[in-house]
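Q: Hi! First time asking for a complex rather than a single chain. Here are the components, and I think there are three in total. Is that enough to go on?
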Amino acid sequence: MGVDLTRKGSRKLGESLIGTALFACAAFSTLVTVGVVVVLARESVAFFSEVSIVDFLTGTRWEPMFQEQHFGILPLVSGSLLVAGGAGLIALPIGILSAIFLSEYAGARLQAVLKPLLEILAGVPTVVYGYFALTFITPLLRLVFPGTDIFNAAAASIVVGLMIIPTVSSLSEDALRAVPRSLREAAYGLGATKLEVSTRVVVPAALSGIIASFILAISRAVGETMAVTIAAGNLPNLTLNPLESIQTMTAFIVQASMGDTPQGTLAYRTLFAVGMTLFLMTLGMNIVSQWVMARFREEYQ
Amino acid sequence: MRPGRAPLGASPSAFDRARRTKGRIFAFTCAAAAFVGVASLGALLVDVIADGASRLDLAFLTGFASRFPERSGIRAALAGSVWLLVLTALISFPLSVAAAIHLEEYAPRNWVTRAIQTNIANLAGVPSIVYGILGLALFVRGLRLERSVLSGALTLSLLVMPVIIMSAQEAIRAVPSTIREAAYGLGATRWQVVRGQVLPMAMPGILTGTILALSRAVGETAPLIMVGAVGFLAFTPQSVMDPFTVLPLQIYSWISRPQEEFQPLAAAGIIVLLALLLTMNAFAIVLRNRARSGG
Amino acid sequence: MTTIYDIEVGEEGPALETRDLSVFYGETMAVDHVSFRVPERSVVALIGPSGCGKSTLLRCFNRMNDLVRGARVEGAVEFHGQDLYAPTIDPVEVRRHIGMVFQKPNPFPKSIYDNVAFGPRINNFRGDEDALVEASLRRAALWDEVRDRLEESAYSLSGGQQQRLCIARTLAVTPEVLLMDEPASALDPIATQRIEELIYELKKDYTIVIVTHNMQQAARISDYTAFLYMGKLIEYGPTDSIFTNPREERTEAYVTGRFG
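A: Yes, that's all I need. Here is the structure of the assembled complex.
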């Protein structure tokens, strides 16, 4: 019986063309990363040929637009970290407690209401948070602390904190849910209360997942742009006082690009040097977060 | 029974009472925390509506931006946002779905695949403003696309692609392997399996992820400032090479005006923007629920 | 050690034959040097305890193991004398001639009609599609139950009907061999009986290799039975002699229910 089971050239060609095209689309994402790195690195290298990298990293004055220029990035980095730190103080406890509430306490119906609302909170554009900070949070702050600047780090911290609550709560909730039922049952079987089961068994078991969500949320806060540009001001200021006006790295990048900076000038390159710093900081945090998350998954799979 | 232990049902000891109180306080704290987010969302909406509702009318939707706040509208911004949304969808959707198909259905398990996958996860975490810098250097200056709708759409496409790819992968992974086996068993080629069975089943999930990602793109401001969208425009784009503005940027430009009279405009713009996003989200949620209930 | 249990295969030769076939999943050997022949238009049952390699062996006949990451095949599998693992062979083409029915009914989430028509469509079928769908459903003894509801979702059928739909779907590609991987294990006794009757009917036109856990089933429907244990083919021969007069002690222990 002669049955032809051999490969047909035409079909093989068609299939492999499709396969190649699909691969090209996936590989394209790698090009995007290469593009980011090349673009940032090229202009940054040019920047550092004019500005010493030591001055850049250790200088305490950021005055690129002044007659006598200073390129110490510390005020911008401290501005970013001040806002992100403040946001973390708000979002981390609230986020983890909401996660515990959603995974351990809330019934299905409450979850069905709360979770979409948190998703909406995460989906509100950052420019809207900026408006909210400026017209609602800042007046409130000035009521309590009359000396507060119109543009201040605290208002930005608070709205950025609100913005990253969903990141912390949803990723932490996933981590809490991944803790096997049997662990909870074992603790209940020993006569533990819900509080003890939650805080002494479930949270410790999910700790690496929770930490990963914290790091990711802080990384988002550092990269946040519009809310801080609107609410925190544009004054590079090496300070720890959240009631003062400051400038973050992201706000500087926006400010520098608003004016029509000509290509090839030092001012244009400043933008890339700051962008590179921001990129490396957030990338570092994201990688650490992914690494912690991967270790968490290994524990339970 | 050990000495010192009360029998079941006896009045609880001081220790047990304290334990119970602590439990209640903790439960209350958790519930309160969960409602902080909801409460602030409420406060935000009330703040915006109180400031902007009075300014919201047909003239606002159909008028162009103006030096005079009472005559200003969001026509150019709304048109720009729609242009950008459509173009971004057209560029990012096919590329992302193809990448997701490759990673889930075709890719061998080797270091190349792992590298691509890690890279996509990292791209999803890159701050949007960094995409703006890339767009500025690559599209606006490098490819000389200038400050056009196309530059904006390309930049936003790069921004949303990692998100769409990852959600599409999840949707494709959710298709049971028995369906693939059945199709392969009938002599389907890999592409026939994907095209005929896997994609149709995964499509609602893929669309949900795409709409959510695109709604994020519609709210983006920072990268579009970088690629040179302007805050003041008295015409709507007629082609992909025209200059443009978008809703969030128009809102930002009103917020940053020193004159008080522009604030209600910003609030009214925010109401329109939020309405647009909520519509998109609602649509995505309906699709997701339909996908979950099994079509 | 290689033993070929010789059975009558007629003048045309066997439909399927394996020679020294071994399958590995990574480092694990799932099938260990198996050699046997499947005569045309007969039913061969593969029995043995869980994990003995019977499903893996079955999946070699239409190269479904190609889809499992890390699976590797050594030795030969022949279909009418053609080596199915030769480099020129297209696994897609193989599956069009050697169809498969799976353990759990796995209809596509489409209409009953579209389920049956999917195979012919991807095979560029140019004839009368309606007639082919009807004929396939009739052969699978499902036509009378679904003739008025062809456009309804396949998920509206009962488990037993779904499995017969899957058989119809496989028949629509007009294969010559049917591989069945515990096709009735997820079904109730009445649905199981209908599947068994169907297999008995189909044997007139098709060569059938069936994996089963159920020894009564093997005894009822098969002409030849192969007993596998830990990847090795322990014994192979006409079904009555395997069940009534096994040569190997392990076979006897298994068929009499002393282990497995």
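A: Chain B touches chain A through 86 residues (CB under 8 Å). Let me know if you'd like any chain examined more closely.
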